[in-house]
Amino acid sequence: MYNEVVMDHFKNPRNVGEIEDADGIGEVGNPLCGDMMTIYLKIKDERIEDIKFKTFGCGSAIAVSSMLTEIASGKTLEEAKNISNKDVANALEGLPKNKLHCSNLGADALHMAIQDYEDKKYGKSRSEPKDKEEHQHASGDNCYCPYCDVELGESATFCEACQRDLEEEH
Amino acid sequence: MLNLDHISSNPLLPEVKEVMIDAVQNDYHNPSSQHKAGEQAAEKIESAREAVARLINAKDPKEVVFTSCGTESVNHAIKGVAMANRDKGNHIITSNIEHNSVVRSLKRLKSQGFKLTSLPVDTNGQVDPGAVEEAITDKTILVSVMHSNNEIGTLQPIKEIGEITRKKKVVFHCDAVDSVGILPVDVQLLNADLLSLASNTYYGPTGVAGLYIRKGVKVFPLLEGGAQENNKRGGTENLIGIIGMGKAAELAFRDMDKRLEHLQNLKKHFLAELPKYIDEYLINTTPDRSLPNLISLSVKYIEGESVMLMLDEDDIGISTKSACASGSLRASHVLVSLGLSHADAQGTLVVSFGLDNTLQDIDRFLNSLKHTVETLRNMSPLYKKKA
Ligand code: FES
Predict the structure, then answer these.
(1) Is A53 in contact with A2 (CB distance < 8 Å)?
(2) CA nearest to A12 within chain B
(3) How far apart are CA B215 and CA B61, in angstroms?
(4) N or C end of chain B, less CB within 10 A?
(5) Cα B306 from chain centroid (whole Å)
(6) Class of domain B2-7+256-379
(7) Residue B118 has what pLDDT?
(8) Phi, psi of B93 (to 5 degrees)
(9) A54, B380: Cβ pair inside 8 Å?
(10) Which residues of chain B carry a pLDDT beneath 50?
(11) Where are the extended beta strands (E) located within B163-229?
């Protein structure tokens, strides 16, 4: 069902655990199946010095968490902000189609943890979590939800599968 | 692999294999052919029919129709009764925890104008026979309730429901696909008018199953064509499969008590040992009113697919009913009907035993489960270690 890279990260997950005095914590739930992921960050000189995760979810969710922590570890915050769900899925050399939505958990949790750190540091009021994401038409006519990758109807503004609003033009 | 997923399929018994291999080598004739070889093939089908009839105590073997799978059997029963009795009424009663073959067949009928009443179950998964009686109207043409549930193992009060449908003169279909051949199922005792069964439940081949249709019950065929199966199912018979199914039925009937005792011992051992290995779980099966070969347990704070994958690494096969492992990513309608919370449903494992399992197998599984649960709980944000 899963490829070797995914199975390796599932069987030997890197960076499992919590950071006691974390500088930033991000927690997200999977809107589709109800699973959860928490990311803990230790930041030094605007760089991710340590990163840990805890995940309640399927094999894919665990592998995604593990791979994400490996990619993000040692990155500057600016670099880490650019890590996308796709990057994680690509690093895992692909996930089954119906499991792509699990990879959304990873980057979202990381970005939330960075936001949490910045909010604490700069006292910024926590901005609303983005709830709209642009997405482009894949080649061909089919259109997929950017959150859960379920196929969408022509001009859907709402994904029935994960119950999220979408950008009108997609 | 240590197979603890017998609910998905069972290995063929050696005796069954033997008759099937012989059939592969020697039997290819069409049972409808009028030459001697054709007649011999037809005779083999009839003796398989007799064995299946005996297994469920059907009065006349002609009441047994061979189908291609349990799902076809259920579709045939439900759609066949609905189509044949449209002039009498359009109301059908069922339960909230039926197999998808029942659920989807009924959904189809609903879109064609039939009215459904789907009855709730209690926290053990049981339907209240009184609720069936109350739901029956003069438009009711069918009641369909399963004998045992394939996810949680609950046995329904079929005998009680059958008494009611008989009294009210409503046709009663029982999906007994996971029961027949595992524990005694007697269509006379249950007052079932139609009953679905499958060969691979009792160590026969897949791709062949059956539908019992009590004499006098009006059912239209699902597959129309030739006059096979006493005009109840057109299409050339799956001769080799039916021969295997007949042999398996004969053995299931002969060894019923012995097998039952073996399975019950495994289940007892499992339930007695489990608390020594893990804590914080729910057993979704009423042990004394459920299948002897199945346990559904929900392990808290972890998700079932990851448990299944880790056990697979230890070469142990089980199945899970977590939303993550389902194609639709939704919690199972059976678990939701029991009132299980979403998080608990996520950790639901189905462990099902078979004749080939031993007490040592159970211990090996429990050992592996213990490590798996520890590993996954250490990873889970929901789990707080008890001091
Ligand atoms: S976390 Fe539920 S499907 Fe991956």
Answers:
(1) no
(2) B375
(3) 10
(4) C
(5) 25
(6) alpha beta
(7) 97
(8) -115, 140
(9) yes
(10) 387
(11) 171-175, 194-198, 209-213
CB B329 to CB A98 under 8 A?
yes
**Dist CA B143 CA B163 (whole Å):** 12
Q: Angle of helix B304-313 relative to helix A4-11, nearest 10 degrees?
A: 100
Q: Domains plus CATH for chain A?
A: 4-121 (3.90.1010.10), 130-170 (no CATH)
Q: How far is CA B321 from the centre of its chain?
A: 16
pLDDT at A31: 67
Q: Torsion angle, CA of B156/B159/B165/B168, rounded to 10 degrees?
A: -130
3-state SS assignment for residue B94:
strand
CB B91 within 8 Å of CB B117: yes
Residue B33 falls in which region: left (phi positive, over 0), alpha (psi -120 to 50) or beta:
beta
Instruction: Map out the domains of chain B as residue ranges.
Output: 2-7+256-379, 14-252
Q: Tell whether domain B14-252 is in CATH 3.40.640.10.
A: yes
Nearest CA to ligand 1 atom 3: B324
pLDDT, tens only, B148-196: 999 999 999 999 999 999 999 999 999 999 999 999 999 999 999 999 9
Q: What are the pLDDT digits (tens) for A87-137?
A: 999 999 999 888 888 888 888 999 999 999 999 888 765 554 544 444 443
> Per residue in B306-324, pLDDT tens?
999 999 999 999 999 888 8
Give φ, ψ of B294 to 5 degrees: -140, 140
Q: What share of chain A is helix, strand, coil (3-state, %, to 5)?
A: 35, 20, 45
pLDDT in tens, B217-234: 999 999 999 889 988 999
B6 near B353, Cβ under 8 Å? Answer: yes
Whether B379 and A55 lie within 8 Å, measured CB to CB: yes
**ipTM attached to this prediction:** 0.83
Which of the residues A16, A58, A64 would you substitute to probe the B interface, choosing the one with the greatest number of B C-beta atoms within 10 Å?
A58
Task: Provide the 8-state DSSP code for B209.
Answer: E
User: How many angstroms does the Cα of residue B280 sit away from the middle of ligand 1?
Assistant: 22
Task: Pull the structure tokens for residue A92.
Answer: 């895992």
